[in-house]
Design goal:
Layout lengths: L11 E15 L11 E6 L9 E2 L5 E2 H12 L16 E3 L14 E3 L42 E12 L2 E4 L15 E8 L8 E8 L4 E2 L3 E2 L3 E4 L2 E8 L4 E2 L7 E7 L8 E8 L9 E5 H4 L6 E3 L4 E5 L5 E5 L2 E3 L11 E5 L2 E8 L5 E3 L7 E8 L2 E7 L2 H4 L2 E2 L5 E5 L6 E6 L4 E7 L5 E11 L4 E4 L10 H5 E2 L2 E2 L6 E20 L18 E2 L10 E2 L8 E5 L2 E16 L12 E5 L5 E7 L13 E4 L4 H13 L8 E9 L2 E9 L51 E7 L5 E5 L5 E6 L24 E5 L8 E5 L5 E2 L9 H4 L6 E8 L5 E12 L6 E9 L1
Length: 837
Amino acid sequence: MAVYKQFNTNEVVVSPFNSNKRFRFENNQVTSSDVQIEYYQSQQGTYLSGSFDTGFNTMQDGVTVFSSIKQLYYSNYLTASTGDPMPTQSLIPGRIGPTGNSLGFDQYVGNTTGPRFDNFLQSSLTQDRKFSQFSASVAPIGFAGTNTEVSQSINVSYNATPNDINITFNAGQPDLSSVGINETYILSTATWNGALNLSPFLTTSDSIKGGALLGPNNNNLTVASGTTTATVNNQSLDQFANSGTGIGGSVNITINTSAVAGGSLVLLTGVNGGIGYKIGDIITITAADLNPIFSGTTFTPGTSTTFTIDITDLATTQVQTINASDLIEERINPDVFITPGTPLGRGLTSKGIFVLFQNAGGAGSIALNYIQAPRGPSVISIPSMLFGEAVQPSSFQFEYTSSINFTRSIVDDDGQGNLIVTQSNSTGVPFFSGSVGQIFYSQGIAVITGPDSGSLREFAHNVGYKGNMNPNIVSSSISYSSSITIDENQYKCTVRDSEFGSTTNPSALRPPGELTQTNNQLFKSFDNGNIVPVAGTYKIFPRSIFGDVKATTYYIFGDRASTSTIGQQYVIELISAQGKSLEFVGFEGNINGRKNSLNQVEFNSTGSAVGIARGFAIAINSEGGFNGEISASLQSTVAGLDTVMLTQIQAGTVGNTRIRYTDSFNLLLQENAYAPIPARGQVKFGNTNQPSGNPQPVNGTDLYLVGEDGAILNVIVNSTPAVTNIDVSSSFGIRNISVAEAFTGTNYKVGDKLEILGSDLGGSGTGYINLTRNDVEDETNSTVYHDFITGSEFSPYVTTVGLYNASNELVVVGKFPRPLPISLQTDTTYMINFDTN
């Protein structure tokens, strides 16, 4: 009987067709977590964590969104809406030698960096991508065409300086809304309106003050011998390690071992400052640095001391204006924190690096100067789970009504990747139509760049983001069609008149694994053991012992080849109990488990012993290796050696194959000799004198489970006494039941044991029948029918068809509405159709 039907190419037909589905979301439906459509407001400028949050579920930063769309879709449109010009490069020939050859003085003039054509161009038509308005050398502020100058200022009364990094304002100040400053603005500069000598603003000059005393904050520097108190002047700071960017400057270095118990006190006194130093920089001086500086003194190797620069060490200058980049940015209205989480009130907080504050004590006010935040395009992101392979061209539509001027905008895609808007005023009269952006179908991304009169370019900002939604969201809707390709698979299965002419119905078939009924065959496999029987004829139930045999084998790896360890270049062959044979070969590479052109499994054999062992174990366990039929585990590492243990289930039994090796490496039971095939279990392989500490090879062991069900045997014992005959019983006579069928048992396997107790034979001791292939019939489920089947006509019916993949895994099951008979005279053809994505 054929169990599987192998298909030929002409019997398989795959026909693709496209399936589209229309989606529409209105108002705030897009914000639902099970929709995951996002409206992102992109933002020009510098990335500041948490400053420009945008999105409904998958939150992003507006600056990163701007950078992403610029790189992905508009890097060819940074200077003009129709595309950047193609840059060219010219060759200016150099001088020619007397024989007409070039002397190598040719010069190339011009830019070689050209537009990149990886921006998902979707049409051969000229693209109109209005992105250059955002990519000028000076980023525009607010709407396109405006500049980056300060657009709003407000004066706030100076109150006090709680500490050198905080300034507070008077209560209630500043009232930013009084001059129209909202969250679209960011602080640019702060200016002191009073006299310069009264300014609370200090800037560090990046230099260490002359006479500044730098004391150690982490010191274990000690003097090993020589002078214990000394000073060396005018030593350059550049010779010591510095965690910051400061360079230049010199100091006087003083040591005094008597000032610190168990160590040496080292002081640095500033002479001239250098540049680039800032608060928090750490200067490290080691014993190795000081040994050549202090003549007659030797410092203990490995000891050192560190100095952290603070405000008292740096030169500071009063200034009129400071930049907001030196302040802790908190959008438009920074709070002052004396300690984290404890607001003091409105004011300014310095980062404490280049700007510090002092209590000037004089009258005056501070002008806060703001610029409008430079926004970029709005982005609509549709997840792939909602558009499939691509958004269907000509299907996208977006509607939005501005809350600023009540302009209604209807945006459609033209099927070529362009977004075309039709806008009407509050009375419904159309007044504008044109391109306002692009849609990228395969990405599910729509970018609205404007310009337009309906606030489309900033609509994502106007509707808000997660946790800060705006009612404007109800004035929007989005619709589009998804595109999914579905493959219809058709399999033509023809059953010949001679195929499937039998059944696997267990009620019709004899059970698998029955004992043979050949006369006295079981006696040939009988092991007397220590049994002492009594002459007579017996009908017994032997105990069934089903074997579960596991073999273990050890490999010993070493950094170099020896008589007891594996070297770096060799080939090893393994054969599983299922008969699968593979060669494993060492090679120079880091990929373990890949097969080469000779179908050998490769593993890295160029590293240390533990590295080679690990690569070998990975290769054994990989899909390219045995994938569990033989498993490898890494054992303990001992002094440059490592051990891999192989384990194989049902190895070494009769009918199964032992773990073995090729001639390329003689890791053997005995030196230069192959190990014999063991009768049961696996004999240890490998050098038996392993280094101390390594797992020592051991013989494999047999683990047994005792079964209750089994056959009935007739056993004859002669007068010697000795067992002379063992057959399968033909009746249940021992139980006063007579049935004309042998009781041969079921599910026996080669390698199992039948235990015969001497007490069942009138004596003592125990004997065994070790089942061989001749003792077990129909071990695999073959088509051997009961007598009541073979004596009558058999006509099979088909109720189910299953499709299996190359790994014999069932992937599709088809049920017929009624059983269909298989013709015994003509071919029967089945057409199986099913759809896959």
